[in-house]
Design a protein that fits this description.
Blueprint lengths: L3 H5 L7 H15 L8 H18 L2 H19 L11 H53 L3 H4 L2 H29 E2 L4 H6 L2 H6 L2 E2 H26 L19 H20 L1
Helix pairs in contact: 2-3, 4-5, 5-7, 5-10, 5-11, 7-11
Amino acid sequence: MVNYYQLLKVSPKATNAEIKSAYRRLARKIHPDVNTTDAPNASGEFVKIAKAYEVLSNPKERAAYDRQLLNAQYKNSSIGDSVLSSENAHAKRWRQMAYERRYNEIIDRMIADERRETMALQKVIFPTVALFLSTCLVGIFKPAFWTNLQIIGKIVLFGLFIAEIVHLVGRLRKGFERYTYRDENLHDSILEEKVETISKPYTRFAAVCFLTVGIGASLGAGLLIGYFLDTIAESSIFAASLKPEFVFYPPIAVLFVDIMHSLASKFDY
């Protein structure tokens, strides 16, 4: 059985970041475009390390592969002349305990990887959904809090707006880095960003378009719903038409959603 860890020259306990770094280093070193004098062999080696990274970079596939590798090693350890490879009852028990410990490590790592992946995905989905929903609600209700606030209130509102803009940009940037790749030419993507294209199916252009269209559609839907419902009682905190100050409210709503999600996450984990 091919040992993907040996191919990438990493430890079986290597983190995803270490595996990613090892793959990039080897990809740049043995790619056929670089090794023109030995292109056929380089091409074969490149395919092998690409396959190794494809498996080891996916938590579920890596766990399944680790189990297969562990089973193969356990069976091989039952054959040989050493004391630990003998059919002695104590040797068998020792091998079984080692097998179970390794297997539990695999399961624990898989659960931890899935938990981190779930949390990372939530940190992208929750702000995005909150941004779309709050933009829609702004279109429906057309709040005018800024107009009715005193100077201190306006300073607080503006401060919250700036804080969440910085926070939201950071969240979206991390989401782009984790789930999208740059739509570059094939040569550059193999040598520089091949890692991204294997596990990240969305281009950054598509992600930007999704956000832009989503915000526009949410605002349009809110305005349309508000126009047909027309059930909001007249009040000083709601405007008859949309005002420029509406840009303050969606990011602030996302800030409160993020705070609640962070608090809930601490109780869950």
